[in-house]
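TASK: fixed-backbone design
INPUT:
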């Protein structure tokens, strides 16, 4: 199957309304980049774009009628546009072939096809629908923290596991047992597949309410509201003297986290860009 591609520059302030219109027309995908050629990485598409003019590429099924586009685009003052056809390709496969390893301490994360030549701890996984390849600052900081720990024989919980990357790393670093928890079915399926590909044994659960054991280490790289809502349960699952790592939160959210985890003595805070990693230990009663 071929695809029809429509490309044009547009003012960034119009992107939200414009993409809504394109979705109404049946767009398959939309990619955004700076119209002046300046690349900006790790941009959250739900936040304000960091450039004034955006170059937008919209992909439609080949049977889409481009004759209806002018009426829509003219509303946004878009007069210049290019329409062409793309042959069928395995776009994800081609993109994955271009990926290179990322290193975090002595942990190397690389695509499955990559032939590693390193003596580091290697995790192989391809980017997919589940969150977690090591490129986001919060995942990167968690991997850096794990690479510095002695996990031999320890019981580790990865809460909000996504792709399973952190739990897989812990197991490869010598953890005695690893439990991956996520309430998203796709994430659990992806995490299991990644664990099997990396030849590590993990347990999976869809909810921490099902757990009945204590953990030496808990890693939770997830959103603020989830970390706060599950603070009591996570603290309960952490053994006395155990270590907890919380990430996925912004600098200005530090106080909200520390207040929610009143039984934890926080010892270290790392940050990258606007993101935090907070590390603490469970105090004795």
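OUTPUT:
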């Amino acid at each position: 199957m071929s695809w029809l591609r429509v490309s044009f520059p547009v003012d960034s302030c119009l992107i939200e309304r414009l993409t809504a219109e394109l979705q109404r027309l049946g767009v398959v995908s939309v990619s955004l980049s700076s119209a002046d050629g300046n690349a900006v990485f790790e941009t959250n598409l739900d936040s304000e774009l960091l450039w004034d003019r955006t170059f937008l590429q919209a992909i439609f099924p080949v049977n889409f009628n481009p004759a209806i586009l002018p009426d829509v685009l003219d509303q946004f003052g878009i007069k210049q546009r290019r329409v062409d056809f793309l042959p069928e390709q395995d776009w994800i496969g081609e993109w994955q072939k271009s990926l290179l390893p990322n290193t975090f301490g002595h942990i190397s994360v690389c695509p499955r096809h990559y032939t590693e030549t390193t003596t580091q701890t290697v995790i192989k996984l391809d980017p997919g629908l589940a969150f977690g390849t090591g490129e986001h600052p919060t995942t990167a900081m968690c991997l850096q923290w794990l690479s510095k720990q002695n996990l031999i024989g320890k019981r580790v919980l990865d809460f909000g596991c996504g792709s399973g990357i952190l739990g897989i790393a812990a197991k490869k670093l010598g953890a005695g047992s690893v439990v991956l928890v996520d309430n998203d079915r796709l994430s659990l399926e992806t995490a299991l597949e990644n664990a099997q590909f990396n030849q590590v044994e993990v347990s999976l659960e869809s909810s921490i309410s099902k757990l009945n054991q204590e953990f030496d280490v808990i890693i939770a790289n997830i959103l603020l509201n989830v970390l706060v809502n599950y603070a009591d349960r996570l603290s309960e699952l952490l053994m006395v003297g155990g270590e907890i790592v919380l990430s996925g939160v912004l600098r200005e959210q530090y106080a909200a986290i520390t207040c929610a985890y009143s039984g934890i003595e926080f010892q270290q805070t790392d940050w990258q860009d606007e993101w935090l990693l907070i590390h603490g230990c469970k105090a004795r009663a």
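COMMENT: The longest strand covers residues 238-250.
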